[in-house]
Amino acid sequence: MSSWLLSSSRARTSVVLPVVLFSALLGFAGKHFVMPAARAANTYPAHDEHLTEAVTLALDPYDMPDKAAIFTVHYSEVGFIPIFVVISNDGDQPVSLAGATAQLVTHDRAKIPPATEDDIYRRISNPSAGVKTNPLPWPKKVKGAVSKDAEDEIQNSQFAAKAVEPHSTQSGFMFFDVSGISAPLAGAYFYLTGVRDSKGNELMYFEVPLEKYLSVPSKP
Hints:
By secondary structure, this protein is an alpha+beta fold. It has helices at residues 3-29, 65-68, 117-125, 148-157, 211-214, and strands spanning 46-50, 55-61, 80-89, 95-96, 101-105, 111-112, 163-164, 168-177, 189-193, 206-209.
């Protein structure tokens, strides 16, 4: 190869490599989690609307690959199902969620609470260990076993609202450990208790059958 061709090849390489590396960085940056925008709760198929109390709870499971693609962590592969929880307050007073308790009840009456951040960290770092039955005294986090992007996603995606202001909506994900359950949503119910009005009175509990979600025809 002539010296001219060799220098030309090197010049092209010196230009191409930074472009490739920059493109790769952009690709990684594009994988950061972005919370989906929430609609009014009564627009979701799976919802429970309390007309008298003017509060509606809705659920939108992210159980299909196209929906779950918003996450960087493959939660289904480690036994979790993410459920997008939406609460709309159409009343004139705020409602408190500070003492609220959520629960997924399967068709065989197994009661599953939302996983904590630590539960998810431990499962990602050790996928074969069950969240509910593991007897080992795990540390809060397994240092170095969870990437910074995954840690940020777990922290930022979870439902964290303590109140819903008048004429507003709060949303976020709850993650449920459904490892070992082949069809966790079939025949399942979601319950939310402990929601209180501005005077401290507890609202009627919310009950959402997940069949409302499963029975919706898929879009063509």
